[in-house]
Amino acid sequence: MSAPLVAATAAPALAIAFWRNAMAVGVLSPFVLLRSRGELRRMGRRAVLLSVAAGCVLALHFGLWLPSLSMTSVASSTALVTTTPIWTTLILRLRGQRRPGLVWAGSALAIVGVVTVSGVDFSTSARALGGDALALAGGMAAAGYVLLGAEVRRTVGTAAYTYVCYGTTAVVLLVACLVSGASVGSGYSADTWAKLVALTVAAQLLGHSLINRVVRGLGPSVTSTAILLETPGAALIAAVWLGQRPPLAVYPGLVVILAGLALVILSGRREGRATPEPETGV
């Protein structure tokens, strides 16, 4: 629901990103401050700094991706931003973690799909190609967000980490709105506010918070790969609700991206069966 709702909301992209995080913090505040206040106090300096860093990277992700939705199609933008597993794999490799050959094959196949989609949009317009570049950069930023979250979640619960992360993201995006002159509420219609609330519930509280919940047990690779399901879902919703139907040549590229990411999933499942992860608790 995230991409179609953003594309349908009549507000600046940075303001949309700010409100989805600020509203989420508002909803979480009574629960976290009443039930997880002790956990917040017990967060060490390293965990707090990493949570703040994750919030800054999440703000960068939103700041890059959301504007792309007004420049290119929902299908193309979502396909490119969900290439997160490729960048997660590359970062893990740079940190010394060896990945199976099937992961690299899947990543290479997904990159071919990215080039295909971008080539089609280049022939459509330079603006669409610019949107593709922003979405791709947003996917890279999302990889950093997932990896930082996985590190924090080793020792910190979902509620405390999410609260610090979203709070940081909201502050960074508010500053970005003020610096850029983006309106954060003036002149918004009731329909716009309703869509911001829907976006907060569907994409932020359910979407991102569930990612933060499962990344501890599933690990960053599998968690980031699961995000690929956003691509067909967002494209279908945008086609039915917004009437967005990208050029037919885009669809083979989307299929190639999904096929490549599916190989990454398959490799992760095989690796998990061969070398099960140690018990991490609940």
Automatic annotation (TrEMBL):
Domain of life: Bacteria
Transmembrane segments: 12-34, 46-66, 72-94, 101-120, 126-148, 160-181, 248-266
Domain EamA: from-to ranges: 10-118, 131-265
Keywords: Membrane, Transmembrane, Transmembrane helix
InterPro entries per UniProt: EamA_dom, EmrE-like
Family assignment from sequence similarity: Belongs to the EamA transporter family.
PANTHER family named in the record: ACYL-MALONYL CONDENSING ENZYME-RELATED (PTHR22911), EAMA DOMAIN-CONTAINING PROTEIN (PTHR22911:SF76)
Name this polypeptide is given: DMT family transporter
Lineage: Bacteria, Bacillati, Actinomycetota, Actinomycetes, Kitasatosporales
